[in-house]
């Protein structure tokens, strides 16, 4: 794993929105990520090397929200959490993923865990808008409405929607019935997927057990299929549980034509056990069925847990139904037989967003407060302990953060917060000339050190500022940082040339290395996990589908680099060819023992790069100068790190 000092902590080190308009001067504030719960401590999700359940003498979980560490500046727009993996989308339309690899769900084309956000390179030239994570697969939607899926399609027939059982270790576009149709939202369960189009149509595919697909039967579907019973109605949003599905559907209400208006109603179907469908019984429903007990509220959002459903009305009220075993219904008096509205500490709050894990719930209010409740093990509720909560409880650690979005994984939680500039320093006067600010003398933030300056002390811009939202665009920096960055760049440039001379290795010689040579013992260290069967062990914890899903399918081919890079019968679409077609792009050029080339150590040392090259793992094809001489590179980066430390302490 990479040394901790090589990472810029995403948020805790840095934005005071109190400095009016300072962030708006160069664009909107950055979106940063906090994460807590299972595996977010020293587990892979938290930047460590330990898989969940692999060892018990390390602090695997984080019981409180902690800032996501990343080697590159990530302006996060959208985030989704699976079982032990996370995917995020930046405002620039790039998609990153990290966590425990299992069946290709990370989308990087290798069977190796990834402890920090890593760019999915095969989608680097695609403008991604949103992402969703199941337990074993991941889906992404582009700005133009195309759907891409990847992960382990061998657990279940049609899990990826490509009409076959083949695993896809890199994203593949879903065509078939969705050809030419604009997808607006997506939801993933462990065994099925729901797709909402911009015209309000609802498609589902995957395992049809319990009628979870809503097609009137229990058959599995390997290609997206529209739910016939909802034709003519507009679906707003859908959510997938394990064996049930829910959707908000616009229905015309009113007696006379003059008073007709649409209202969002809650429809549920699939397994009715524990009252999760909200119909007052435990019967399964094979088609979408309106929850009559909630005919009054106008719904806008819905989320599903393992055995519960959560819905949000346009009035900002939260309703729950289903199992109450861990207090996840949020109402101590609720028995789960019928839907109930959550009161308590939310009674005077307007909830704007809801998210649901397997057995816990998180909500975001209009005051940017986060409340959680339900199962508390692994610290997934973010209260610093592992206790269950049966009513909404404020996440105190995020009280001073401006949270803009939340997401739940199976047993962990994440939040996107607006980037805070350095606080705790006197912001009433310029950090340079020490003259107080006033109406005419505006304050500006330096996008490198985060301190506030007047215009004359921060009139220069640099493309290498460590906090820049877009690494390809110049942002305001103070005079001191400008000089430091320029000096560091010159030092970096000279050391690059000396490394190239002493190492006697040029780009051409690197490109001439054969495929077989690329997978020597050093490369083997980088891709440390290639045991396919290891990916199946975690599935033993599943309470359902245990026997059916664990059958090893012969069509599943694990990408075990053995010199020949045998990928067997795996489908690789044309759009994915850049990853596999050129071995230069596929394998990392980092030195042994390092997941990320040390060039990414300091934000200051970054060279200007073309759009979409902000991957944390530079590849052979993307390096301008190869860095093979370890000692020289290490020395250079240590010097640059010291410069950064000095700079930030001023």
From TrEMBL:
Compositional bias per record (Low complexity), positions renumbered to this chain: 494-505, 598-607, 614-626
Coiled-coil annotated residue ranges, if any: none
Keyword Zinc-finger: yes
Keywords recorded for this protein, A-Z: Metal-binding, Repeat, Zinc, Zinc-finger
Disordered: annotated span: 489-566, 593-650
Domain of life: Eukaryota
RCC repeat placement: 31-92, 93-144, 145-199, 200-251, 264-315, 316-367, 368-419
GO MF entries: zinc ion binding
Biased composition, class Polar residues, residue ranges: 522-535, 638-650
CDD domains the record matches: FYVE_like_SF
Domain FYVE-type, chain residue ranges per copy: 424-486
Protein name per the record: E3 ubiquitin-protein ligase HERC2
Organism: Trifolium medium
